[in-house]
Design a protein that fits this description.
The protein has 174 residues and is mostly helical. The protein has 8 helices and no strands. Helix 3 crosses helix 5 and helix 4 crosses helix 5.
C-alpha cells in the first residue's frame, strides 16, 4: 500500500510543458481575430480554461495519476494567474479574492463542459461557450468554436497517457 505522502508528484518539467502547450493553443490569433473571443485578460483566461478543461476531461480516465497531473497543471495555471494579476497592479489584498473567483469560474466551466460533452449535447455546449466566452452575446464565430472544441476533445482523447505524462500534448490548430 502506498501512503498518501509517498505518492509520486508529477514532474515539474512535464507540468510546465503541458501548461505551456495549453497557453500556446489558447493564444492562437484566429480565436480572437476571426472567431470573436474577446482579446482581453478575461477572454484569454477563458481560453486557457477551455483548453485545460479539455485536457482534464482526458486525464480523468487515468485514475489517481491523471488526477494528480490535472491538479499539478491547475496549480501552475493559478500560480501563473496570481503572478499575472500582481504584474497588472492588482493589490495584494484583492488577488486572493480574484483567484478564488477565477477558480469558481474554471470549475463551473469544467463541470458544464463535461456534462454537455459526455451527453454529446451540441446545443448545450454551444450555450456554455456563448455564456462563458462571450458573456451571453450572439457572435458569428460560435459555431466555429464549437466545432473546434469537439475536434480538440477527440484529438486529446486519442492521446496515449504515456505521451501526456512525457509532456507531449499534440493539439490541432484552430
Amino acid at each position: 500500500m502506498v501512503l498518501g505522502f509517498m505518492k509520486k508528484r508529477p514532474d515539474a518539467r512535464v507540468v510546465s510543458a503541458l501548461y505551456q502547450a495549453l497557453v500556446t493553443q489558447a493564444r492562437q490569433p484566429v480565436l480572437y481575430a476571426q472567431w470573436g473571443v474577446p482579446d482581453t485578460v478575461s477572454g484569454r483566461f477563458d481560453m486557457i480554461s477551455l483548453h485545460a478543461a479539455l485536457l482534464f476531461r482526458r486525464l480523468r480516465g487515468d485514475g489517481e495519476t491523471g488526477l494528480a497531473l490535472s491538479q499539478a497543471i491547475f496549480d501552475l495555471f493559478f500560480k501563473d494567474m496570481d503572478r499575472s494579476l500582481r504584474e497588472m497592479g492588482v493589490g495584494d489584498l484583492a488577488v486572493p479574492k480574484k483567484i478564488q473567483k477565477m477558480g469558481s469560474v474554471f470549475y463551473g466551466l469544467l463541470a458544464a463542459i463535461n456534462e454537455a460533452m459526455d451527453k454529446k449535447d451540441e446545443a448545450a455546449l454551444s450555450e456554455i461557450l456563448r455564456r462563458n466566452l462571450f458573456d451571453g452575446a450572439e457572435v458569428s464565430g460560435l459555431g466555429q468554436i464549437c466545432a473546434y472544441v469537439w475536434r480538440q476533445d477527440a484529438a486529446i482523447a486519442a492521446l496515449a497517457y504515456a505521451d501526456i505524462a512525457d509532456g507531449k500534448l499534440a493539439l490541432e490548430n484552430a
